[in-house]
Amino acid sequence: MPADIISGKELAQTIRTDLAAEVAALKAEHDIVPGLATVLVGEDPASVSYVTAKRRACEQVGVRSLHHELSADTTEAQLLKLIDKLNNDPAVNGILVQLPLPDHIDENAVIYAINPDKDVDGFHPVNVGRLLIGEARFPPCTPAGIQEMIVRSETPTEGAEVVVIGRSNIVGKPIAVMMLQKAPGANATVTLCHTRTKDTAAHTRRADILIVAAGVPNAVTADMVKPGATVIDVGVNRIGTTDSGKAKLAGDVDFDAVKEVAGKITPVPGGVGPMTITMLMKNAVAAAKLTLS
Ligand code: L34
C-alpha cells in the first residue's frame, strides 16, 4: 500500500487561516499589526523565490511586510547599519535576513547583530541556546515546520527512533535537539547522521521517523527505509528547468520508490517548504505579542 502523502501545502493553509484570526484579534484587542522586515541581498533566484513567497504569506496572514532589497555588492557595514535601524524601529517586530549572503559578508556577524527578540529565524546564539535547554522562543522555521508535520500527521514521537541526515545549523542540528526534548511531539531517541557517518543505511533502516536534509538528490532510496516509517524530505534541489522554464525541483528522497515502502511521506515541492514559511508567520506573530508583556 503506498504511503499517505503529508501535504505541507494543505497544512500550511490551515495554519495560516488560524494565524490570520490571531492577527485580527491582536488588531482588535491591542491595535497591534505584526511587522516583518525581510532583507534580500543580491538576486540569487532561489532566494528571490523564497522571499517572494514569504511576502505573499504575510499578506495572507495580515502581517505587515517591510521589504529591503540590497544589491549583491552591499558591504557588511551597510547591512549591519540597516539591521541596527530595524532593531530600533518599533514597527518592526521580526527581522529576516535571507541566507545565503554573498561571500564577502560574514553571516555570523549579521546574525549576531539582530536583536534576539526580533530574531524570527531563531538563528541568534541566544535563541539557539534557548532551544537547546527546552525554552525556545523562536523555534527555527524549517525544523518547526517539520515537527508540525510529524504531529499533525499523527505520527507517534514518544520513544520513537528518529534518524536525521544532515547536521546544518538551519535544519539538522536544531531538529535533532527539538525531537529529543522532554515535550509533546518529541521525546524521541535521536540519531544524527552526516557525511562522515560510517553506515548511514544501517541507521535509517531503524528509523520510525526519517528526516532527510542532506542536500543531495536521491540520498535516500527505498532499501534504506523501514516499512511504515514516516519520511520527511527537506531537500530542495534544482535539477533543471521544466518545459515552461520554471525550476524543476527534487527532494533528497527517491520519492516514487520510497512511497511504496514508507507509511507517510512529504512531497517536494509542496511539503516542508510551505511549512517553513508558515512557521515564519507564526514567529512573526509571536514577536509582536512579545511587545505586549
Ligand atoms: N534566513 N534563510 C533564512 N531563513 C530561512 O528559513 C531560510 N530558508 C532556507 C534558505 N535560506 C533561509 C528558507 O526559507 C530554505 N528556505 C525555504 C523556504 C521556502 C521554500 C523552500 C526553502 C519553499 O517554499 N519551497 C517550495 C518550492 C519553491 C520553489 O519553487 O522554488 C516547496 O514547495 O518546497
Report the bound ligands by name, code or SMILES.
Answer: ligand L34
> What proportion of the residues form beta strands (DSSP E)?
15-25%
CATH topology of the largest domain: Rossmann fold
Low-confidence stretches: none
In CATH, the architecture of the largest domain is: 3-Layer(aba) Sandwich
| CATH homologous superfamily placement of the largest domain | NAD(P)-binding Rossmann-like Domain
Helix content: 25-40%
How many individual domains? 2
Number of strands: 11
- Order of helical and strand elements: EHEHEHEHHHEHEHEEEEHEH
N-C termini distance: 51 Å
Average pLDDT, rounded to a whole number, is 97
Question: Tally the helices: what do you get?
Answer: 10
CATH top level assignment of the largest domain: Alpha Beta
| Helix-and-strand structural type | alpha/beta
Query: What's the main sheet like?
Result: 6 strands, parallel
Gyration radius, rounded: 19 Å
| Shape designation | globular
Strand ordering within the main sheet: 1-11-8-7-5-6
Brief write-up:
With 293 residues, the protein is α/β, with parallel strands linked by helices. It contains 10 helices and 11 strands. A 6-stranded parallel β-sheet has the order 1-11-8-7-5-6. A 3-stranded parallel β-sheet has the order 3-2-4, with helices on both faces. A two-stranded antiparallel ribbon has the order 9-10.
